[in-house]
Design a protein that fits this description.
The chain has 19 helices and 23 strands. The chain is an alpha/beta fold. The chain has a domain of about 170 residues: 3-Layer(aba) Sandwich (Rossmann fold), CATH 3.40.50. The strands form 7 sheets. The chain has an 8-stranded parallel beta barrel, surrounded by 4 helices. Helix 6 packs antiparallel against helix 15. The chain is globular, with a radius of gyration of 26 Å.
Length: about 700
């Protein structure tokens, strides 16, 4: 028999039946099936849907970004002691206000939305209080349906990027996902397995759970096959088998065998894989709206395996990508012996992919959550249709939750015109509510203890495990004449110069100061601020290229360069910088070498950089992946043996990713780096080879 949950109410009453307590969420004085925690989540969802009116069902099918009251500077536009934001943003006032945005209370009570995305980055206690306040408003409505809050990942280090790294440094902070992959793949090479990923997910789940964030827009199951794809840094690399294992482990730990009151329900993205880009352009903008499959069997072999694992491990929801499968630039693709018909609409509108492949072939049982903005900005293949028609196309294709909109009017219009059946609306609502019941949001998990949130997130063991992963992620690419480790005897009487290089000079200065302070704390190096007297230089390089919200004038630049003249798509010339201070970098390296000294260089691998402009300057070259500088310094000093390996292949040169005049790439866009040589023109090799003969291919990493 189920144990009586500890029920809390703030605006409604508890009722008793059979000596047990239940919430009277609809205030009718009797126990309805949806209020009965002894019944299955699906039974309760079906009962609740039978009681909901059309406005409540429509509100349930939209998810919208929601600011916390703490992010609102004008406190007169807040409620609940400043916790809830009540401001109104007119349509077009910001790039995210594609329709009018209302205050939190109005959105919950009158527009009936229940799904929200948090992008703010406040303390765990403040997040818990915010979720509690929203649920208090929701509890006071007709049926007392609670809210559920989703977020992009919050446990990896990196620089803030809207829609990817919205929030950093509040929860235990691990290396970027490529760093987690580098560390786990290193463990596998050393005879272990990817249990580091399991530990990461187990710890992150506890932290999310304590704050009331119960839905993760994570993780990316995409396989990197086009090196210029700006979102590569949010993936686990290019190895489909490894990524499938990672996704399975993440789901097992965040969700458990079945979704329950301690689970974080996950949204695996971006089905059927965002890596098959047209020369790297991203579908957040029009130039990147196509997915290309020029290689026979590539979709089934490389891109779908991680999503198969996601379905097998019971992911609560799947997010399809914005992009359109291109007929013109693809060869026939099959799945399990059947030819895949390509309809040239974005995957969220694509019934064959959602209904036939995802649900039918892969056995996916959860709900489909669109990516943000598919009814307005990124409605590829449906550009000439109205917003109401886009809603109808997406929902009839199998999409259940439409992201980053509060446009109830156009969804209601599509229903009133008979373009979407009530049966289909009910089906989506049952799927969405089943998750909420399973998570306990209607029962003992409506409200969270802010003090407990602080306590859980500040658990010392969580942060120690994260730091250990940083050290394990460090990948030694090159180590000429055993330059590393820089042990005490090698450094005896020698001075060390440390500098950080970045595209942004201000950030470079701030990062340099921090790295030097961390080196001082380590106590291993005798530091100098003057490279002209240094015997050793440790140089951290943080290149940046492009943005996934805007196309670059030409192809995304992967060389480490400054003021490089490139040719735009339209033939005009423009300048590109991925790393500032390259002349100074060379000066430092030449100065140290002139005295017989050593140069240790670290490159932050957020994209598969082409390293020909910097690798020859380095005696030792290491890769980090938004890896803490102090963790890298520990490996450089020999306090921690290097075990990380490359999770992606680094291209040899611009020639191996060059694009012909007809738009085709020399190396196929849909094949991972480790397999590209099968398809390269005669005499060309895809992976970078350094001066020592090391090949920077998937799995490369030196030891000492």
């Amino acid at each position: 028999m189920q144990k009586q949950p500890d029920l809390q109410v703030r605006t409604k009453k508890l009722i008793e039946q059979d000596g047990l307590k239940f919430k009277d969420l609809n205030n009718n004085g009797k126990l309805d099936p949806y209020e009965d925690w002894r019944l299955s989540p699906k039974e309760r969802a079906e009962n609740l849907v039978s009681m909901m009116n059309i406005d409540e069902k429509i509100g349930m099918m939209l998810i919208n970004s929601r600011k916390m009251g703490l992010a609102q500077e004008d406190k007169s536009k807040t409620s609940h002691d400043g916790v809830l934001d009540e401001s109104i943003i007119e349509k077009g006032e910001t790039i995210f206000a594609v329709s009018k945005v209302y205050g939190t209370t109005h959105t919950i009570a009158n527009r009936k939305l229940r799904h929200f995305i948090l992008r703010d980055n406040f303390t765990p206690a403040e997040m818990a209080e915010w979720v509690n306040a929203m649920n208090e408003v929701a509890e006071g409505t007709r049926l007392g349906i609670p809210v559920i809050v989703a977020s992009n990942s919050r446990n990896e280090n990196g620089e803030a990027v809207f829609g990817m790294n919205d929030a950093i440094g509040i929860f235990s902070t691990w290396p970027g996902t490529l760093g987690l992959a580098a560390a786990a793949k290193g463990d596998i090479q050393n005879g272990g397995d990817a249990s580091l990923i399991s530990e990461f997910a187990r710890i992150a789940r506890k932290e999310w759970n304590a704050t009331g964030l119960r839905k993760g827009y994570m993780y990316m199951a995409d396989v990197v096959t086009d090196p210029r794809w700006q979102r590569s840094y949010g993936t686990f690399g290019e190895d489909p088998e490894f990524i499938a294992d990672v996704i399975g482990r993440i789901l097992d730990e965040f969700q458990g065998e079945t979704i329950g009151t301690d689970s974080i329900a996950m949204t695996t993205k971006h089905f059927p894989g965002g890596g098959a880009r047209e020369n790297g352009f991203d579908p957040h903008y029009e130039e990147g709206k196509w997915n290309l499959y020029p290689t026979p069997g590539s979709l089934e072999k490389y891109h779908l395996p991680p999503f198969k694992a996601a379905a097998e491990h019971g992911t609560s929801s799947i997010m399809p990508y914005y992009s359109i499968p291109s007929i013109k630039k693809s060869v026939v693709q099959e799945f399990e012996g059947e030819e895949i018909p390509f309809e040239e609409v974005g995957f969220t509108f694509n019934r064959y992919f959602i209904d036939h492949i995802l649900r039918g072939k892969l056995g996916f049982k959860g709900y489909v959550n669109s990516d943000s903005g598919i009814v307005n900005k990124m409605s590829w293949g449906m550009e000439n249709s109205s917003e109401a028609e886009r809603f109808a196309k997406a929902i009839n294709a199998g999409t259940d939750l439409v992201a980053d909109t509060n446009d109830i009017e156009n969804l209601k219009l599509a229903i009133s015109k008979g373009w979407i059946s009530e049966k289909r609306i009910n089906e989506s609502n049952v799927r969405l509510l089943t998750e909420m019941f399973a998570l306990g949001l209607f029962d003992d998990r409506t409200y969270n203890d802010p003090e407990k949130a602080t306590e859980v997130v500040s658990t010392k063991a969580h942060w120690e495990a994260a730091y250990e992963a940083h050290k394990k992620s460090v990948t030694v690419l090159k180590n000429s004449n055993e330059t590393l480790p820089l042990t005490a005897d090698k450094l005896d009487g020698k001075k060390v110069y440390i500098e950080v290089f970045h595209k942004d000079q201000e950030r470079a200065t701030a990062f340099t100061e921090k790295a030097r302070n961390e080196a001082k704390e380590l106590g291993h190096f005798t530091l100098t601020d003057n490279y002209e007297e240094a015997d050793t230089a440790i140089l951290f390089l943080h290149p940046k290229s492009g943005s996934y919200f805007d196309a670059t004038p030409g192809l995304l630049e992967l060389e480490l360069c400054e003021d490089k003249v490139n040719s735009a798509i339209d033939g005009t010339l423009y300048q590109e910088t991925t790393l500032s201070g390259l002349d100074h970098l060379k000066e430092v390296a030449d100065s140290v070498h002139s005295r017989g000294g050593k140069v240790v260089m670290s490159v932050n691998i957020t994209l598969p950089w082409i390293l020909g402009n910097v690798e020859p300057l380095a005696d030792a070259l290491i890769a980090g992946y938004d890896t803490f500088h102090n963790a890298q310094l520990e490996v450089i000093a020999g306090n921690h043996k290097p075990t990380g390996v490359l999770p992606i292949t680094l291209p040899a040169s611009e020639e191996v990713i060059a694009v012909y005049q007809n738009g085709d790439c020399v190396s196929p866009n849909d094949v991972p780096g480790y397999d590209k040589d099968k398809y390269m023109p005669a005499g060309m090799t895809y992976a970078y080879k350094d001066r020592d003969g090391n090949v920077y291919k998937l799995g490369h990493g030196l030891k000492y």
